[in-house]
Design brief:
Keywords: ATP-binding, Nucleotide-binding, Transport
Largest sheet: 6 strands, mixed
CATH class: Alpha Beta
Protein name: Putative ABC transport system ATP-binding protein
InterPro entries: AAA+_ATPase, ABC_transporter-like_ATP-bd, ABC_transporter-like_CS, MacB-like_ATP-bd, P-loop_NTPase
Order of helices and strands: EEEHEEHEHHHEHEEE
Strand order of the largest sheet: 6-7-8-3-9-10
CATH superfamily: P-loop containing nucleotide triphosphate hydrolases
GO molecular function, one term: transmembrane transporter activity
Family: Belongs to the ABC transporter superfamily.
Oligomer: single chain
Bound molecules: adenosine-5'-triphosphate
Distance between the termini: 30 Å
Length: about 230
């Protein structure tokens, strides 16, 4: 498989002097195109910092981050916005939908940002929300809102989908359904999906598990036979 993402000797420090905090401490890993990757670790391990640097929301203090062969750690805001718009979809713990827009309109917003946005209606069908397209976020359950946000993330047809605790605010049954959908996007649409979580049960379904503690990588494990989400004993 093609290598899509490379972190090489990446360090992220916050603050200076006595208040200096090393959030990410000399981290190396690679992610291939089409992989379903879970970054695991307890609170404060540095997971979100890694994801934020990957999405260009934060820049490393030192080291190299390459996406699709492009060095992103030295990109300016405009270059980063372009790369993000073309390649990356985000799913957050809280769905970040615009309350005054319907599910359909929230997904259709992407058309304003990218030229080749996918059809909102088809995407909402794909995430099982055929009957809810014209509802506002307040009329949808948490799981439904998260599915709208997944449809929105997919609408720009990104190569990479990043999720920071994407099931964190959902009950376990809905969380499993959302995870199943992400695994499906990975297998059927060949998306590279990277999820940050503290839930160790996710490890069974991943192609690759990156374990972090105190800003460092403790283990990188390639799973030869990942389990379909539906078969995991949660
Ligand atoms: N903007 C910031 N300023 C100062 N310190 C920060 C900042 N962002 C993160 N940190 C620190 O960096 C460390 C790693 O934080 P990070 O959010 O990446 O951890 P995490 O593994 O995602 O944790 P959680 O599961 O609780 O979200 C923590 O000690 C945190 O306090």
């Amino acid at each position: 498989m093609n290598e899509l993402i490379t972190f090489k000797d990446v360090v992220k420090e916050y603050g200076t002097g006595e208040s200096k905090q090393i959030a990410v401490n000399h981290v190396d890993f690679t992610i291939d195109e089409g992989e379903f990757v879970v970054i695991l670790g307890q609170s404060g391990a540095g997971k979100s910092t890694v994801l934020n640097m990957l999405g260009g929301m934060d820049q490393p203090t030192s080291g190299s981050i390459r996406i699709n062969g492009e060095e992103i750690s030295t990109m300016n805001d405009n270059q980063m916005s372009r790369l993000r718009a073309e390649n990356i979809g985000f799913i957050f713990q809280f769905y970040n939908l615009l309350p005054s827009l319907t599910a359909y309109e929230n997904v259709a917003l992407t058309k304003e940002i990218v030229k080749d946005a996918l059809d909102p209606s088809e995407l909402l069908d794909a995430v099982g929300l055929q009957e809810h397209k014209n509802k506002f976020p307040s009329q949808l359950s948490g799981g439904e809102q998260q599915r709208v946000s997944i449809a929105r993330a997919l609408s720009k047809n990104p190569k990479i989908i990043l999720g920071d605790e994407p099931t964190g605010a959902l009950d376990s049954e809905t969380g499993i359904a959302v995870l199943e959908l992400l695994q499906k996007m990975c297998k059927e649409r060949h998306k590279t999906v990277i999820i940050v979580t503290h839930n160790t049960a996710f490890a069974q379904c991943a192609d690759k598990v990156i374990r972090m503690r105190s800003g460092k990588i403790r283990e990188i494990k390639v799973n030869e036979s990942p389990v379909p989400v539906s078969e995991v004993n949660w």
